[in-house]
Amino acid sequence: MSVSETRTGAGRRRAPASVYASAALRFLGVVVVTYLGLLAVTFFIGRVIPIDPVLAIVGDRAPASVIAQARKEYGLDLPLYEQFVLYVKNALTGNFGRSVLSTNPVMADIARVFPATIELATLGTIIGAAVGVPLGVLAAVKRGSLVDQIVRVIGLVGYSVPIFWLGLIALLVFYARLGWTEGPGRIGIAYEFTFTPITGFYLLDAVLQRDWGAFRDIFGHIILPAALLGYFSLAYISRMTRSFMLAELSQEYIVAARAKGLSESRIIWLHALRNAAVPLVTVIALSYAGLLEGSVLTETVFAWPGLGLYITNSLQNADMNAVLGGTIVIGSVFIGINLLSDALYRMLDPRTRTR
Amino acid sequence: MSTTAQTRREWLLSDRPQSRLQAKLGRAYVTWRRFSGNGLALVGLGIIVALVLVAIFADLIAPYSPTIGDLKNARLLPPSATHWFGTDDLGRDIFSRIVHGSRLTLFVVILVAVIAAPIGLLVGTVAGYAGGWIDAVLMRVTDIFLAFPKLILALAFVAALGPGIENAVIAIAITSWPPYARIARAETLTVRNSDYIAAVRLMGASPMRIVLRHIMPLCLSSLIVRVTLDMAGIILTAAGLGFLGLGAQPPLPEWGAMIASGRRFILDQWWVAGMPGIAILVVSLGFNLLGDGLRDALDPRSGEQ
């Protein structure tokens, strides 16, 4: 949405430095307000909606002395606004309390599981962009052709299919029936106890250790969930690429390039796509953020030990600290990517600079 | 006969309508002609009409009980003439469960739309018409909710409220109003300074009356399009919550929860989880097609460029 809005802001004057400074200040203001909002909403969810947050932490069979102690320990005897200030302070230092389930600090748990989610979402986005952009370009160039229809159907189905169901079907077909990929989980039993993670990104770790057997096994595990996530970002990316390319191809500079006698492929891939690439960066960044969210359901289906599975497991065990911590981390990354792509867009497209 | 049809059509398409009713009917007729010229949109409409009919007549259509199965003779039977979609691990007929589950799907979709759309409409029109600091505050709040990942936020809300289909509806509604507010505000900004609003204001109408009677109706058509397009997303989110065990609770035949319970049998009895998934796919495809068609019919500008 914001893509099309900012695109029309064309201007010829060069902006003075103070304009940049005030724009940067305003951007900072947006960041601060949005993060405070995120914290306020999660605070509301965790502290205001439950009738007694202490009961949620210690359980309803705890003796009165334990309840009183916990109330004090978590600062729940303070007035609500002081609690919120404390909450913000804790969140900013990464202190989300302890997980009831694992008894570790929530932040340590998240640090342990998050790389798995990032690895999955990154590979998914790479697949989505590598397939989606060329498909979208072809659909725009050959409008109304078979490719165009296929892109349309891919998009429609992608917006309509429940991802967890498609994951189950994919497991059934590619793992159980065809045996092309490995099953659920992140690494096979043969390597699980000998493989030592370094960075937490298993594919990278296997390459670093030149353990090609493990690499093949890990790749076999990640490819199915990553392809699934890739399909969802592909549906979005190809559709947006198509409409950006259609907009570029109707521009006059394309006519001029044709009149100069440039080859059609050069016009499409070098001239038009380069201009369409600016808003595309935003789209790909947004779909990456979307995949971090989509991983919640995918990880559950594929027993992928990432943040999504961590959140749902905590949910099922009423481990509220872990749920809120996970929500804040995913929310922060989501907001961060949103704002970053917005800033990136402004930097890449000179037309949006003067305001 | 043909002459009356001809004149009726002329009456509808007249560019000098004699009454408000004629003008309204005429506009509706033009919109319908644009809509019905789109084959896929009609397919979408057909799917949704079928869904509504199935939900209304579920008791008549379903051959078996949705909650009581035949544990002795009918566990995990494959699709056949007696059980069209097979049976699940408790011997319940999956077709009957899907038929009854359509009620839950409609319940969720309608309730979310009824809660979220008016909130978005009110926030957007008030922000757009009032301007100034009211606009700034309301839009910041909207942006904060927009910045959230929807499913995660809904998850956290359900975690605090407790699982259940009503809480799932509340959680989804809370996460889905911001886009409506954005749309309503944009529409309000385009009409705010038009002459007819100035005329109404000169006649002494209060701001509330202007917003309620003269601005909101104009926002409705784009809002309806957006809500229809969102319905598929709402169904998918509700099914996702059900799949995670946070939506409708057993033995309710909610489609997402049915997939979750069929998950254990996916390798040998694929139909237990497979059939409800197909039902979700078909219905959300229907809403997407219908929404696309409505968008093209009601607002030809924003369609295919």
Write the layout of secondary structure elements.
The complex is a heterodimer of chains A (355) and B (305).
Chain A: H1 2-7, H2 17-48, H3 53-58, H4 64-73, H5 80-92, H6 106-141, H7 146-160, H8 163-177, H9 189-192, H10 202-208, H11 212-249, H12 252-259, H13 264-302, H14 307-316, H15 320-348
Chain B: H1 2-13, H2 20-36, H3 39-56, H4 58-61, H5 94-130, H6 132-147, H7 150-161, H8 165-176, H9 178-192, H10 195-202, H11 207-243, H12 255-262, H13 270-298
Helix pairs in contact in B: 2-13, 3-5, 3-13, 5-6, 5-8, 5-9, 5-11, 6-9, 7-8, 8-11, 9-11, 11-12, 11-13, 12-13
Provide a quick synopsis of the model.
The complex is a heterodimer of chains A (355) and B (305). Chain A has 355 residues and is mainly α.
- The helix/strand class of chain B is mainly alpha
Seen as an oligomer or otherwise, the chain set is: heterodimer
* Total beta strand runs of chain B: 0
Any idea of the CATH class of the largest domain in chain A? Answer: Mainly Alpha
- Global geometry of chain A: globular
Helix-strand pattern of chain A: HHHHHHHHHHHHHHH
Domain module tally of chain A? 2
Give a structural overview:
The complex is a heterodimer of chains A (355) and B (305). Chain A has 2 domains: 17-92, no CATH class; 109-352, MetI-like fold, CATH 1.10.3720. Helix content of chain A is 75%, strand content 0%. Chain A is built from 15 helices and no strands. Chain A has helices spanning 2-7, 17-48, 53-58, 64-73, 80-92, 106-141, 146-160, 163-177, 189-192, 202-208, 212-249, 252-259, 264-302, 307-316, 320-348. Chain B is an all-alpha fold and 305 residues long. Chain B is built from 13 helices and no strands. Chain B has helices spanning 2-13, 20-36, 39-56, 58-61, 94-130, 132-147, 150-161, 165-176, 178-192, 195-202, 207-243, 255-262, 270-298. In chain B, helix 2 crosses helix 13, helix 3 (39-56) packs across helix 13 and helix 5 runs parallel beside helix 9. The longest helix of chain B is centred in the middle third of the chain and has 37 residues, at 94-130. At the A-B interface, helix 2, helix 7, helix 8, helix 11 and helix 13 of A face helix 6, helix 7, helix 11 and helix 13 of B.
